[in-house]
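Quality-control log, excerpt.
Job 1 of 2 completed; input and output follow.
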Amino acid sequence: MADMPDEEKKQDPKFNQAFIKAKVNKAKTGKPEEHGLPEELGHDRLPPGQVLTSRWPILDLGVRPKIDLKDWRLEISGLVENPVTLSWEDFMKLPQTLVTADMHCVTTWSRYDNGWQGVKFLDLADLVKIKPEAKFVIQYGYDGYTTNVPLVDLMRENVLVAHAHDGVPLPPEHGGPARMIIPELYAWKGSKFIKKIEFVAADHPGFWEVRGYNNHGDPWKEERYS
């Protein structure tokens, strides 16, 4: 991976620098921690280096923006025929989908059978009409977070912009009011507090990627740190 750009090396005081350092170190080592469930459970669906948990650990950058639903907007733009900016009311009027999926964190915990409710990425893509030259998607969060994903990884039936988890609206500590869910990748590849989805032709590494995280993030290949 290329060196981190100078502007990315600067510490942003709004972010939890101790957490960032610890999470980078965790991704580098990939050493599992015990999370309270028997080790023998679920090896057929547990990626290598992961430990199963029934809890949902809270991990963030130290910024939990307070977003009133009347002010929330989701911009979908870039290489699309029909860019849109959705209000919460617009978003909730779109077809709603329930997805049950496992969740894998780069810090080595996995949580099975999460019940997500939201709008499928495929439905958002159909709404804006993606141009052929679009190959990547950049996500932006209200907390200043960014992450990059190849478009092909998002064009799946179980990828959502989710607003509820196990029947309960997403709280701020888990990225509410809405976050991207990409079950086949580590959880960092889906932005919490999502506010913008941008379709682009060329890849642009995001927050963790410029700090050494793998640019793709496949749990089954242990793509943690480059």
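Job 2 of 2 completed; input and output follow.
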Amino acid sequence: MLTLTPWRVDQAKILTRRELAVVLADLKRKAPRSPSTRLKLVVFRLACCCGLRASEIAGLCLDDVVVAGDRPHLRIRRHVAKGGRRRAVPLWWDEGTLSDLAAWRAERAAQGATQNALFVASRQSAAREKPLSRHTLRKRFLTACKVLGPERRRTLTIHHGRHTFISHALAGGRSLAEVREAAGHVSLLATSAYLHVAVEDGDCFGNLFQFA
């Protein structure tokens, strides 16, 4: 009988708690005076703290970002999700992520964006109706990670944010079933590959995904 075993997650694909904290602190320090940095912060949050793929970030609309109620979440629609598997990604797992995405949603609404408008859009008014390309999103993500230094940044891609989200959610105490649903995995086997991945390092700044 053939026994399937999960593939092993490359540790280099996971941003540690310290790395996440360093990037977020740098972005949040610059964000109040820089619209470009606020966009990078949102892209980084969606990738590393929500586990969205680049195509899912590009296709997210304002109406898909539910910040009110007891269980705020992101709604990933079938036409943008891999394999057509729609899902809901909890925002109530992490207060910082919820706060930053809610602030960006309010900023987009103040710009006149409707509920069906893109959540992540160009800062140029003439291009706000067009989804950002994967190349642009990847570039924004890597620029956000600049504070980690050139050597570390060369090892990263925006998809590593998804690996980071899954690993930290499990390390933060979320169950396999919860994380499988949030990530949109077909089976628990894929999610279980991230169990026991080390997310701490020598200078731990605290946990993500322990919001009420």
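Post-run check on job 2. The chain has a mean pLDDT of 89.
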